[in-house]
Specification:
By secondary structure, the chain is α/β, with parallel strands linked by helices. It is 41% helix and 13% strand.
């Protein structure tokens, strides 16, 4: 994709919204919203709790049950039952649909033991937002505890992801833990029945764990990726020391988000600086 070098080529969103549907104490939505405001140089980033509750509250009363049923159907259809195969077409089974209906009655955190197709999950949320009057022109980021993935044509199987970009962009706290790979020796040790990581690999500090205190700082990188996806169509950077780096390993994720010498590479730093000055 052609690189964006000029502020004139960026499309700043007219509005921005951040939803915390994760129910996680390790997610500081206020800090993330302030980060988004600094990054964009305006507009104000609206802070909200659960996306589903927000949208249903703003859906016309005559359509609330219809919207809830449509969302349950969309979530049921997005479920991945066989990670080694593409999802079959057709209606989901009644028991799967009933499960999703029950989950919608719960407040976050909702059980996260199901793998969803990320693009289908994003589409289901997008339809819900449309019915609630959320502007399609706004940048919307939803943080969830739900685990999702995308199908890789290369090896014909689903892989867990941290984020799927669109309207909305969805970021998974569960994906932060399981999607970027841990050291190879960790998986070898598990195959051999060795408890815990080998001493040479450090320990849990080498990767994210559930409710990790570093979660909010790491999610800032995905807020930045969502913003650049909106403004340029390209969320990623090839430089490991940039927050936009698409990390596939935990060590690279932690380096790009926590330990790099600078927040962004030189090119993206110029763009962020220009945005801030023009806000």
């Amino acid at each position: 994709m052609r690189e964006v070098e000029s502020l004139l080529e960026l499309t700043r969103p007219p509005g921005a919204m951040l939803f915390d549907s994760s129910g996680s104490p390790s997610v500081d939505v206020e800090e993330l919203a302030r980060y988004g405001e600094r990054l964009l140089g305006g507009p104000e980033v609206e802070r909200h709790g659960d996306l589903i509750a927000f949208c249903l509250e703003r859906t016309d009363a005559s359509r609330v049950e219809e919207a809830r049923e449509e969302l349950a159907g969309g979530l049921a259809a997005a479920r991945v039952t066989e990670p080694g195969a593409e999802r079959p077409a057709g209606a989901p089974s009644p028991h799967v649909l009933a499960y999703e209906r029950r989950m919608l009655e719960r407040e976050p955190p909702r059980p996260a033991g199901v793998l969803y197709d990320g693009f289908s999950l994003c589409a289901a949320y997008g339809r819900l937002m449309s019915g609630a009057g959320v502007s399609p022109e706004d940048l919307v980021v939803v943080i969830t505890d739900q685990l999702f993935g995308t199908f890789d044509e290369g090896d014909s199987r689903y892989h867990a992801r941290v984020a799927v970009f669109g309207h909305p962009t969805v970021v998974s706290t569960s994906g932060l833990v399981v999607a970027p790979a841990r050291p190879r020796s960790y998986y070898l040790g598990r195959q051999l029945g060795i408890p815990g990581p080998p001493a040479a690999e450090g320990g849990p500090g080498e990767w994210l764990v559930p409710e990790d205190p570093r979660t909010t700082e790491v999610i800032k990188g995905y807020v930045a990726q969502a913003a650049f996806y909106y403004m340029t169509g390209e969320p990623f950077c090839q430089e490991r020391g940039c927050r936009l780096f698409n990390a596939h390993w935990q060590k690279d994720l932690l380096f790009s988000q926590l330990y790099a010498e600078t927040e962004f590479c030189a090119r993206h730093e110029r763009l962020v600086g220009a945005l801030s000055r023009s806000g």
